[in-house]
Write a structure and sequence with these properties.
two-stranded parallel ribbon, disordered N terminus, 4% strand, 23% helix, mainly alpha
Amino acid sequence: MRSVRAICYDVGMSTSAPVVVRKLTLKTRAMKLYWHELSKEEYDKIIKSEMTIQDALDKYSQPDWCGYPDALAGMWGCWSLTGENRIKISKEFCKDCECNKLNDQK
């Protein structure tokens, strides 16, 4: 998490120098990368690095429409998402999956 400091400008001043009116600390969460959007080169590098499943769960995200619990959890996760079909994953590819959240909206 990182902090963000808000800087406000006082338009009544003759100078355009920023004036810190208050510090606003926001806890922002770095966006996770989607596992299925990694390039082959990035994927191969991760596999060679011997990243643990927990590291993958912490660093990467499953698609927003995927309701499979811990879909990136290797052999306990979604085999389509973690296997060779990883690069084919799309809303269309997953449309018939029982864990597709979009199916709940129909």
